[in-house]
Specification:
With about 290 residues, this protein is mainly alpha-helical. It contains eleven helices and no strands.
């Protein structure tokens, strides 16, 4: 048994235990509203995974959280006796969510090298702390809790569509499903292009071909588009859910502002050709009209 497989098995056992703890928490707050129960279980799961990251001294325990836990939360919400959303819409939303989650989880699994690896962003953020209190605030707050709250807000449109009764399946649902599938396909293509590029990379150069020619972060474009598709599902259920646009906006800020700035700053430091690429290529949007 190689180290990576053994480490993935440990991660699997840890997440199974985490999901079990979520079920216990869900049942404990059985009388609360669905929206509140999702939040409580989401935060409780974050604390559970954070404790594992402390035990293993590796915050990359949280990496799989992004794709695994939203599916669990959505299924718990859908199976709740209080859920009153349209059943056909629920099936369609879950199919899209699973498609997204499988792609993201697979991409993480094949690129993760085991517990010898920790995301460079986590290392950088924790490395800037001066004492144990700052370290805790960064590790638990910035690396674990804040992303969890952002994902919770972005998941709210789907939760509302599951929790409350709405209109029958309509054209907005078809548009939402189209956007979700398109988003994941963009991610699959951009992930594979980057994977092939890195596998054959002999020196530090910038990826400028395929979708990466038209956008510096086409995978992030797909991610933002996917979360926006869940908002369209909520609108399809009930136009009064329009205020839930705050979810995709928060996710956009997390990805397009926070993550992109860190990624671009690192690339500028490591790649001599990145500045020209950065000046000619949009950060997120795929500029299909870009000329060489």
């Amino acid at each position: 048994m190689n180290n990576k497989f053994a480490h993935l098995l440990v991660i699997l056992i840890g997440y199974i235990a985490c999901i079990y703890s979520m079920l216990l928490t869900w049942n404990y707050f059985l009388g609360s509203s669905l929206i509140l129960k999702v939040l409580i279980c989401h935060v409780e799961a974050t604390i559970f995974i954070y404790l594992l990251s402390v035990i293993f001294n590796n915050s990359s325990w949280y990496d799989a959280f992004w794709s695994v836990i939203p599916v669990v939360l959505a299924m718990m919400c859908w199976s709740d006796i209080s859920a009153a959303g349209n059943i056909q819409r629920a099936y369609l939303m879950h199919a899209c969510l699973l498609f997204w989650a499988i792609r993201l989880t697979y991409n993480w699994m094949r690129s993760w090298d085991g517990f010898s690896h920790e995301d460079w962003r986590y290392i950088m953020m924790k490395g800037k702390t001066n004492n144990k209190f700052q370290y805790f605030i960064v590790d638990f707050g910035s690396i674990h809790l804040i992303p969890t709250l952002c994902v919770y807000m972005a998941l709210l449109p789907m939760i509302y569509a599951l929790a409350y009764s709405g209109s029958e399946l309509n054209n907005l649902d078809l548009l939402a499903a189209f956007l979700a599938v398109l988003a994941v396909i963009i991610q699959i293509i951009s992930d594979q292009q980057m994977y092939n590029f890195r596998k054959n990379l002999s020196e530090r150069k910038t990826m400028k071909s395929g979708l990466w020619y038209y956008s510096r972060h086409p995978n992030y474009f797909g991610e933002i588009l996917f979360w926006f598709s869940l908002y369209v599902f909520a609108l399809a259920s009930n136009l009064s859910f329009g205020w839930l646009i705050i979810g995709p906006i928060i996710m956009y800020a997390l990805i397009a502002i926070a993550s992109v700035s860190m990624m671009d700053k690192r690339s500028l430091e490591r790649r001599s050709d990145f500045r020209d690429y950065m000046n000619s290529t949009p950060a997120i949007l795929i500029n299909i009209f870009k000329k060489g």
